[in-house]
C-alpha cells in the first residue's frame, strides 16, 4: 500500500490547477444510464479512484466507456443490466445512484445495501422512501434491495433531511418519469445544480436546482449530451486551508469562489487574505491562524467535507476553537491521528474542542477516510519534520495527483510505493 512522506514547515508558493468535481462527476456519469445515445463528460477528475470505480460500474451495467484525459465518453453497448455488483457498491457508496435511472427506465433494479463506513452508518432510507412515494415496491433479499415499479409515478416528495445522494437519486429517477416531480427539502449543493444542468441537456426540464424545492419534468426518451463538470470545491477548499496552515501564497485556477463562501469567510476570520475573480482564488497567509469555531451544515453552510482539514488548521491557532459536526455522526476519527502530531483536541459527542499549539511535529499517522487523510496532509505540511501518512488510497479517492500538485508549489511530498 502506498504511503506519503511529507517534510513539513515549508510555505506554499505558486499555482495549483483545481480538478473537476468528483461529487458532481459521479452522478453525472451515472446519469448517462438514462439514455442510449452517446454522452461526453468533460473536466472529470479521471485519475481518482472513485471515478475509476464509476467507470467499472457503468461497464458492468453494459455501457462502453472511453477515458481520454479529463473527458469521458459513454456509449451504449447492447442492453443494460439492472443489477449492480456487490464488490463495486461496497467500494463506493455512491454506486446506489444507479437505482434511480435503472428503476425509472426498466421498472426493476437490484442493488446491494451499502454497509456502514468509517464516518457513520449512512443509511439509504431517504432514497428508498422517495422511490416508494413514486410507487416503487421494495423487497429485501440476501443483503440486496430489489425495487420494482412497472412505471414510476411522478409526485410530490418531501425529504426528512436534505440528503445529497437521495436528492440526486430521485432527480435521476424523475428525469426518466414522464410528468412533474417535485422534491422538497432537497439538498442545495452546487453538485445538484450541475446534475440538473446535465439532465436539461439530456432533454428533461428541471427548475429550482440549488434551492430546497426542485421540480423535474421527465421524459420517456432522453438524448445524448456533452457537459463540462464544475470545479471541485472540496479540493479547492483543502488547498486554501493547507496554505493557511503552512503559510505562503497560493493561486488556485479553475476554482469557483462562489461555491466556497462559508469557507472563505472562516479563512478570513482566521487571518488569511483572500482575493478572487472569475475562475481563480488567491490566498496569502503570514502569521499564526486566529481561532475560528464552526459547525458543519448542508450547503451553503460549512461543508462537512472540510471539517477535518479545518480542525487541522485550528490545531495551530493562537487560541481555542470549537468544531461541531452536525451532518455525519462519527466524523472525528482524524482527531486522534492529529494528536499524534501534537494537536490538543478533545472530542465529546458531535463537538470537538481544539486548543491551538504553536508547532506540530511530524510522526507516522494513518488516514481513515478521504477527508481525514486531507486533514493529516494539512497538518503535515505545517508540521516541523517528517510525517508518513499510511493508507493513502483514502486520499487518492478524492485528490487527484496530490503529491504532484503540492510539490509544484514548494511542498516536499513524495509517494512511497
Ligand atoms: C455526499 C458527498 C459527501 C458529503 C455528503 C454531505 C458524494 C459522492 N458524497 O454524500 O462527500 O460529505 O454528501 O455533504 O456526493 N442520510 C440518511 N439517510 C439517507 C441518506 C443520508 O440518514 O437515505 C444521512 C447520512 O447518514 C448523513 C447525512 O444524511 O448523516 C448526509 O448524507 P448525504 O447528504 O446523503 O451524503 P452523501 O450523498 O452520502
Question: Quick gist of this model?
Answer:
The chain has 417 residues and is α+β, with helices and mostly antiparallel strands.
What does this structure look like?
The chain has 417 residues and is α+β, with helices and mostly antiparallel strands. The chain folds into 2 domains: 3-19 and 231-416, UDP-n-acetylglucosamine1-carboxyvinyl-transferase, Chain; 22-228, UDP-n-acetylglucosamine1-carboxyvinyl-transferase, Chain (Alpha-beta prism), CATH 3.65.10.10. The protein has 14 helices and 23 strands. It has helices at 22-31, 49-60, 86-91, 99-106, 125-133, 164-175, 190-202, 233-246, 261-269, 307-314, 333-340, 370-382, 393-396, 402-407; strands at residues 3-8, 12-17, 39-42, 63-68, 71-76, 108-112, 137-141, 144-148, 156-158, 179-184, 205-207, 213-218, 226-228, 248-253, 273-277, 280-285, 294-295, 320-324, 344-348, 351-355, 364-366, 385-390, 412-416. The strands form 6 sheets. Strands 21-22-1-23 form a 4-stranded mixed beta sheet. A hairpin with a 2-residue loop joins strand 4 and strand 5. Helix 1 runs parallel beside helix 2, helix 4 packs parallel to helix 6 (164-175) and helix 11 runs parallel beside helix 12 (370-382). The radius of gyration is 21 Å and the shape is elongated. The termini are close together. Bound molecules: uridine-diphosphate-N-acetylglucosamine (UD1).
